[in-house]
Here is the input.
Amino acid sequence: MTATTVVKQQAGPRAAADPAPARRGRRRARLIALLFVFPALLLLGALVVYPVLFSVGRSFFDASGTRFVGGDNYTEMFRDPATLKAIRNTTIWVVVAPALLTGLGLILAVLVEKVRWATAFKLLLFMPMAVSFLAAGIIFRLAYDEDPDKGVLNAAVVSVHDAFKGTSTYPTARGRTGLLTQDPDGSYRTTASAGDTVALPMVGVLPKDLPGDTSPARTAAARKAAPGELRGVVYLDFTPGGGGRQGKVDAEESGLPGMKVEAVRDGKTVASATTAADGSFRFSGLTAGPYTVKLPESNFAPPYQGVSWLGPTLVTPAIIGAYLWIWTGFAMVLIGAGLSTLPRDALEAARMDGANEWQIFRRITVPLLAPVLTVVFVTLVINVMKVFDLVYIIAPGPVQEDATVLATQMWLVSFGGGNDQGLGSALGVLLLLLVIPAMVFNVRRFRNSER
Here is the structure.
């Protein structure tokens, strides 16, 4: 054995037994990592951890924050009708919105694959994600406006309605008091006999609102009825510039064309007619005796105003519709990314075996996309639980309580007039407890997918 070998054998165990350099290296690496992570941890603590802990503590105090009340805020929370309605609306959001979005995203992702300009189509559907919730809320608040002259949805609904059912020509017209009798249903009537010529004076119609083909009623009022015939004229009992006599057809007074007139006897309509351009009408083939000449209520029905999208009944579905417009592109892009990773050989094998596209979609595509669909669904569940902007902006003040969800109720109770930060903190804790299970589930899914 040489001297060199003896020295190595003596120094080897001493060098191996000295871990100081290795420990110093690990400590240095940990210190460097901590220095890099520290700003993020500081922000996380200041913006997330501290507010959560403060809210939990604040929920056990009264509105002023000076008196400890224990669980009274949580008890009050479930006794308050507004909070119960917020919980109900949040449940509707959680059940309806994520399911619809996931379904729409899946259908669009599958269909986009067969579109030639798939990238442009995806970009078009994803563009609403670039619009802030504030701007989207303002857009849909205007779109849902009940006035058809402002709200585009009601303008479309009114156009379709009027195309099939029509609309009254003179919604503001009313009979001249003392000359025509108004029935409870809004119709007007007078009495005449076969062989008479009767004048039906109306008021309440602006000359500018008369149809373009209107002509003076004087000539029609002068016509004499033949035996077995009943003639008449419906006219605007108003002379431009003043003058004229009430109840008499003056030279410059216009007829009211398009007015429906009925002849009624013994409670049954025996004849009907529509007035001509000069307001004249004629019933022929009548037997002798008196008749009730009636202007039905349909002549004066107010115009159809469309659907009250932001009324108490439809306000929540309307806001969910706005949410779908924003987030459908998000669901489609994520599901489309998962769709692009599917094994094409399985799909081609199914086609070669004679499966049609619906069978391939139902039995192969959907089962293989189940992990992606689950992640998208849970992500959307977390998102809809926290929805605030759209509800607060779109819902008008009178129906704000009908549309409220937990996030808006928390803000309204704390800062929107309630000034009860104790109860608002309790609502925030409830919302946190509802969101945590979905967040934990999503994190576990991501970890499993990485493995």
Observations:
- Strands lie at 174-175, 181-182, 188-193, 197-203, 230-236, 260-265, 268-274, 280-283, 290-295.
- Residues 174-300 form one domain.
- The first strand starts at residue 174 and ends at 175.
- Residues 388 and 408 are 5 Å apart (CA to CA).
